[in-house]
Amino acid sequence: MRKIGIVGAGQAGLQLGLGLLKNGYQVVITSNQTPDQIRNGRVTSSQCMFDRALENERALGIDFWKDAPPVEGIQFSLVPGGQTAMQWSSRLDRPAQSIDQRVKMPRWMTEFEKAGGELRIADVDMAGLEALEQECDLVIVASGKGEIGKLFQRDETRSPFDKPQRSLALTYVHGMEPRKEHSAVNFNLMPGVGEYFVFPALTLSGPCEIMVFEGIPGGPMDNWANVKSPQEHLAESLRILKEFVPEEYARSKDCVLTDDLGILAGRFPPTVRKPVLALPNGAVALGMGDSVCLNDPITGQGSNNASHCAAAYLTAILEHGDRPYDAAFMQATFDRYWDYAQFVVGWTNNMLLPPPEHMVKILGTAQQNQKVAHWFVNGFNDPRTYFPTITDPALTDAFLAEAMGAAA
Ligand SMILES: Cc1cc2nc3c(=O)[nH]c(=O)nc-3n(C[C@H](O)[C@H](O)[C@H](O)COP(=O)(O)OP(=O)(O)OC[C@H]3O[C@@H](n4cnc5c(N)ncnc54)[C@H](O)[C@@H]3O)c2cc1C
After folding, report:
1. What CATH topology corresponds to 71-98+165-266?
2. Which of 16, 329, 336, 344 is the most buried (most CB within 10 A)?
3. Index of the ligand 1 atom closest to the CA of residue 145
4. pLDDT of 346-397, one tens digit each?
5. Cβ distance 309 to 289 under 8 Å?
6. Ligand 1 lining (C-beta closer than 6 Å)
7. Which InterPro entries does its entry note (predicted)?
C-alpha cells in the first residue's frame, strides 16, 4: 500500500488526506496544532466556499454542515465618501457556505483518524520533512502561511507584488440585522480606503456574521496595530463602518463578538511559489494550497483554491498508479492545479489594483442588467468564466453589448 505524508491539517491537507484514505492509501498527516488547540484558538479566515468547492466535499462525504447558514447571493456597492453611489445584487445558482475552521478542521481530524489515518502532532522542519520522506512514498507540504512553506522558492513571474496589498481584519459577530432579501455576501468598495465584505457563517457558538476588512495600507482602515483588546477591535470595526459604510453600520451597530478569539488582524503579500522543494538528502517534496499559491482574501478564493488543489492532487495521485513520485510528477501535478488557479490569481491580483475603466463598466452595467450581474456574481464559483472577457476592453464591450442587446 502506498504511503503519503502530508504536513498541515487545513482545508488542503485534510481534504486530500481524507480522499486518499477513501482510495486505500496509507496517510500520515502532521499538524502543529491538536484538534483542541484549533477549536480553542483564534479564527484564521472567513472561508466562504462556493458550490464547486463544496461539491468536492460532498463527493468525499465530508460535508457535515448541511444546516449551516447559506450564502445565497452577492451584493456589490460602491460607496465613495460614505455615500452609496451604486448597488446591485444577484443570486448564486447554488448557495455558498462558510464554516469556521475552528469547527471544521477538528471534526475532519477526528474523521481522518476514524478512517484509519495517522495524525501526528509536531511542527515539521526541514529535518522533519526528510524523516517523513524516508518513511513515505510521497511528501506533500500543505502548511498554509506556516514558515516551512517559505522553503519553496518564490515564483517571480507569477508573483507581481512583493508587499502586502491590504491590511486585513476579521470580526466574527452575533446580533447583526439580516439583509432584507436573500442572504448574501455584501461586498462594499470604498475608493481610496479599501473594501468591506460581510456574510453569514457558522462558528463555535452557532450562526454568526463575519466582517472582513481589506484596508489600503497606511489608509484610514489600517489602524489595527493600535487596537489593544477584543472590545477595541469591535469598536474599531464599528468606527470604520460608521464612517465609510453607514448602511452596513445601521444593521451592525448592536453586534457583539462571538468570542474574544473571533477576531484577527494581519497582512501578507500574495505569493506563488515553485511547487517542488529539493531536500538536502536529494529527495523532493510537493507544495499544495496556500503554501505555494497564497492569494489576498479580497475575492474570497483561498479555501476554494485549497479545495480544488486537493481535488486535482487526488486525481493526479490516483492516476499515477505505482510509478515513482519524482520531480516531474510533482511539477505536472501542480501544473494541473495551475491550469485552474492561474485564473483565480490573475483576477484576484487585478482586484487589488485600482479598477481599469472596462471593469468599472462591467460593475456599472450589472446594475441595470441582470444577465451581467448574474454572470459576475456566479463567477466567484468559477473565476475561469471571467476570462478572457475581463482582460481586454474590446472583449468587455462586446460582452456587454450582447447582454444589453438581449435585454432590449
Ligand atoms: C482574513 C482572511 C479571510 C479569508 N477569507 C476567505 C474566504 O472568505 N474564502 C476563501 O475561500 N478563503 C478565504 N481565506 C483564505 C483561506 O483561509 C486559506 O486560503 C485556506 O485556509 C488555505 O488552506 P490550506 O490548507 O492551504 O492552509 P491552512 O488553512 O493555513 O492550513 C495549514 C495548516 O498547517 C499547519 N502548519 C503550518 N506549518 C506547519 C508545520 N511546520 N508543521 C505542521 N503543521 C503546520 C497550520 O497550523 C494549519 O493548521 C481567507 C484568509 C484570510 C487571512
Report:
1. D-Amino Acid Oxidase; Chain A, domain 2 (3.30.9)
2. 16
3. 30
4. 999 999 999 899 999 999 999 999 999 999 999 999 999 999 999 999 999 9
5. yes
6. 7-13, 30-33, 45-49, 123-124, 142-146, 148, 168, 170, 212, 289-290, 297, 300-304, 306
7. FAD/NAD-bd_sf, StyA_sbd
